[in-house]
Write a structure and sequence with these properties.
Blueprint (H helix, E strand, L loop, with lengths): L13 H20 L3 H4 L10 H20 L13 H4 L4 H12 L4 H17 L6 E4 L2 E4 H23 L7 H18 L5 E5 L3 E5 L13 E4 L1 H8 L5 H6 L3 E4 L14
Helix pairs in contact: 1-3, 1-6, 1-7, 1-8, 3-5, 3-6, 3-7, 7-8, 8-9
Length: 264
């Protein structure tokens, strides 16, 4: 039997990703500046965090780009995409501690203003190939910006639900988030017996079994981008999405319940 082919990593347009990160951050910054003390005190739905701490987490994710660019460049890449999606769970506890401390340093609007000013300057001078050291290893800046788009989209959705907001999701940022989380599923469950479709942004094949060659695949899962990111990050369950008809699944290998979430 010939060896399995190594999955080719998806290529992201660095300029578009950079713009998507800055655009989504600007959307969140505007909304956070208008939050009332009562809204900031609401539960976030993420552990013990309040909305204030959730907002701080969003801000800290972008501030981490600036902080990394100010540190010396590491010697080699240690982490790529979509492997990053599996690396974050191991550092969840120290991240939570840092968020709590960061949120206490200033009002949310001040944190966002400071972070926005810094990243605008530092990103302008940094090429996407520049290596940066982050909590889970060393990555190319272009790849790390992809992860920032994912974090911004996922937590903007969290913030919308927690505080009753309607912060828009930048189309390019949502596309990046959808694709990375779909690729993470394909990496977690390699194979070609099931096709997962998240139109209009992503289609991946996964799960071991008979390989589909042409025509309609025997095992198909299809959902919308927002439902997909909630499934992939554990915000909703497979059973809940099926029951509400937010996901369609056909075929004996189309049950993804045991494979989700792919990132937590």
């Amino acid at each position: 039997m010939p060896p399995a082919k190594k999955r080719k990593q998806r290529v992201y347009d660095s300029a578009k990703t950079r713009t998507a990160v800055l655009t989504q951050f600007a959307h969140v910054r505007e909304a956070v500046a208008a939050l009332t003390p009562e809204q900031l005190a609401l539960p976030s739905g993420l552990g013990d965090w309040t909305v204030r701490e959730l907002a701080a987490h969003l801000c800290m994710g972008v501030e981490s780009v600036s902080a990394a660019l100010e540190r010396p460049e590491p010697p080699a890449v240690q982490l790529g995409l979509p492997e990053w999606a599996f690396a974050t769970a191991a550092v969840a506890a120290p991240i939570a501690d840092d968020v709590t401390a960061y949120a206490a340093t200033a009002a949310p609007a001040e944190l966002f203003d400071h972070a926005a000013g810094r990243i605008a300057v530092l990103l302008a001078e940094a090429p996407p190939t520049r290596l940066i050291g982050i909590r889970v290893g060393a990555m190319r800046l272009g790849d790390y910006l992809v992860t920032r788009a994912v974090e911004l989209v996922v937590h903007t959705d969290d913030l919308n639900r927690a505080a009753g907001l309607g912060i828009p999701l930048d189309r390019q940022a949502l596309a990046v988030c959808t694709r990375l989380l779909a690729d993470a599923l394909a990496l977690k469950a390699p194979g070609a017996s099931t096709e997962v479709r998240v139109p209009p942004y992503a289609v991946v094949q996964c799960v071991e079994g008979p390989r589909h060659t042409r025509g309609t695949p025997p095992n198909v899962v299809e959902t919308d981008p927002l439902t997909w990111l909630r499934l992939a990050t554990g915000r909703t369950t497979w059973a809940e999405a099926l029951a509400s008809a937010r996901v369609a699944a056909s075929g004996e290998r189309a049950d993804l319940g045991a494979l989700l979430p792919v990132m937590s």
